[in-house]
Amino acid sequence: MTILLYAVMVVCGWFTIYAACYDFEHSEVLDFSMRHGMQLIWIGTSAALAVLILLIDSKFYSNIAYLFYGAMILLLIATIFLSPDIKGSHSWLKIGSFSIQPAEFAKYACALCLSHFMSSYQFNMYKMRNILTMAAIIFLPMAIIILQSETGSALVFAAFLLPLFREGMNGVIVLLGLLAAVMFIVVLRFNNLPVAPGEVPSPESYGFIIVFILAILVAAGLLWHYTHDKPGVRNLLLGNLGIYVLGGALHYFLPETVLYTRVAFASMGASVIYLIIWSVIRHKRTYLSIAAFLVLTIGGVYSVDFAFDEILEPHQQIRIKIVLGLEDDPQGAGYNVRQSQIAIGSGGLTGKGFLSGTQTKLNYVPEQDTDFIFCTIGEEWGFLGTTFVVLLFSLLIIRLIIMAERQRSTFSRIYGYCVAGIFLFHFTINIGMVIGMLPVIGIPLPLFSYGGSSMWGFTILLFTFIRLDASRMEILQEQ
């Protein structure tokens, strides 16, 4: 069934690429000067790769994990210096008339390496040495890819949280990660905070307040989860409620003297002091850890502007601002998303029909055969077509998780979750950015978007897991 889903997606992807780059003067299927013709080459070579992968002994993939990961790290570093500048990115290597993107294969190397390490003898998820090693395996290629100015490909490595979570990573880490993302968005969206005495905050100036209230609630949840300290949780929540009520009353009567943002800081500071005192009374470091979390929240709030202005590139900044409604640039940075939304909306329920999309034929949507290929599906096949594609991906991801759960080796199970996580991340982020729900970060739709590196990368990822799953069946037959 997995191979059938793969085949259906590849075929649908090719027809969509053909529609996206269709030219009346170059309508031949085997016209290799056009992208649909080149995609046939990538599909053919991917099929050959798939057969080769299925013929190799399954133990080979575990044995080469560290070696392949090390070689890929060296290749990523070399790419920074050898790659030409393509739209500000140094992530493509030219080989004759072809270009290849090593970052696509770094995901495969990372999946193998992480699976091999986590399946090693006496591995313990909670040992600090193991935690640091896992972090290094994931973040090292991420950092190098960011240096290539390919932030979108780097963010894909967040998909490895899925296998970590499956293998026992504390769910609190995921919760804190989500909180950090919410904090970043809220502060960035509502960062017009008054600090000078005498200023009256506007309704859109409560970013700090929202984040701090959320942090206090999370702290209370952590306190209950780790200590079951009912009085401590009650005192923390009631104390903050009292500070906010009193601060709100004072702010109402003395708006130029008592700023509500300062009330938020006061409640956070009082909470930290309370937790420190409670840790001394109860002789538990857990309270100190939660107090440290609140202090880090304050630091995180103040680092948002720095991270946004100094780390992100200008084009990335404007894309995020457009999604958050901070700017409107329909003829500039927001042009791609706006045209994509028009194309998808114009498709209606059943679409305009194959090769009949006006937005597609007139090339209104840039990158309509790569990152924005989903808009071509929406315009020509409508809501029914996009639903079919979503169902295909959903079935594939569910199938991968089911396969991962039935594995008899830890290596195969972890690798299966790595593959499922990568497909899920690409699928979710790509469609989210095409419909304007997420910033445009430039990652392809698996097996649909044009590109040899993408097609090879996803084929290798998927068929390696299919081979590992087949070895599970061989073990059962031997028994």
3D architecture notes:
Helix content is 70%, strand content 1%. It has 479 residues and is mostly helical. The protein folds into 2 domains: 2-169 and 388-478, no CATH class; 190-312, no CATH class. α18 packs antiparallel against α19. The radius of gyration is 26 Å and the shape is globular. The model is unreliable at 192-204 (pLDDT under 50).
Summarize the structure.
With 479 residues, the chain is mostly helical. Helices cover 70% and strands 1% of the residues.
Task: Give the fraction of residues assigned to helices.
Answer: over 70%
Integer average pLDDT = 83
What's the count of strands? 2
* SS class: mainly alpha
Q: What does the largest sheet look like? A: 2 strands, antiparallel
End-to-end Cα distance: 25 Å
Give the number of domains. Answer: 2
Evaluate the radius of gyration: 26 Å
